Amino acid sequence: MADDTSTRGAARRPPARSAHPSTNGAEIGYAVVGTMVSGMAVWGGIGWLLDNWLGITLFFPVGVLVGMALAIFMVVKRYGAPDPVPGSGARTTSGTRRNRPVPGNQTQKGQR
Fold it and tell me: What pLDDT does 105 receive?
């Protein structure tokens, strides 16, 4: 206590935030698998109920396929592309060319 240099009632600094996100790869993987399985199960179940109600066998496979498609859409929407790491130098460019020559800065063969 005697070595404590902080004064009572003084504002404390907030704790440093971690550079890593709070979720790891396994948690994201389980979430993706759970989304895929539940999408197929829910929409396949709806198709199965419609099959039993109407007396035909068309809606179950259609429901499974629709469930898989919607689950893939949700996974891509939620976990699609990771955010770029600050300072990594990753840049996005518009157009199809990566580099455009600077006017007046040409090589022997013309453009860079």
Answer: 62
Q: Output the pTM of the full model.
A: 0.52
In order of 30, 72, 82, the CA distances from 69 in angstroms are: 18, 5, 21
Residue 16 confidence class, pLDDT cut points 50, 70, 90? low
- String of b and e for 16-52 (b: at least 16 CB within 10 Å)? eeeeeeeeeeeeeeeebeebbeebbeebbebbbeebe
Give me the residue label for tokens 């699609």.
80
Q: How many domains does the chain have?
A: 1
Is 43 inside any structural domain? yes
